[in-house]
User: Fold this.
Amino acid sequence: MSDLMKSMRTKRVSGVAVAAAVGLLVAGCGGEQGAEPSAAPPPAKDVFQEFDPCTVLAPEEIQAFGAEPQGIPNDLGVGQTGCDFEGENLQFGVLEAPKDDRAFWEGQRSQFDMFAPNQVGSHEGFQGIALGFEGEGTCNQTMYVGSGSVIVDITLTSDVMANVDPCAEVLKIAEVVESRLPA
Assistant:
């Protein structure tokens, strides 16, 4: 084992030992002798452990919306991940954003040409068109879920879709996605 590896291993083990010792000291202080230990509240359930944006829609549903069922993984690099689905006349995506809650999005209002609060099923959210994209065939539907959000976005890519409202189309997809979201 190299000296560097020994040093790294020693630091990691030492750090764990110090943390454990501090924990024991803190646990030994401050409590009454013989008192029952208080039960810690259970950790909050992570609703995003049960949700997969790449499989939330069945292949036949994706095809019915006009796209190929094979999703293309998408990581926006800002804590929003999911899949894009491409078709001849449109592209849509389903993303999860576990840390982007209502307060986050409210703080982003200035980044939208359109920000319209709404509700899809039992989930509040908003429809939005990103700044500079009004009239470009794009729209997104964000739904607040737990401490984060789920986003469905659409881009109409064909002149065939020129008279189609992208916000109406994204809402159709979002309604199906919403029916499968954890409460």
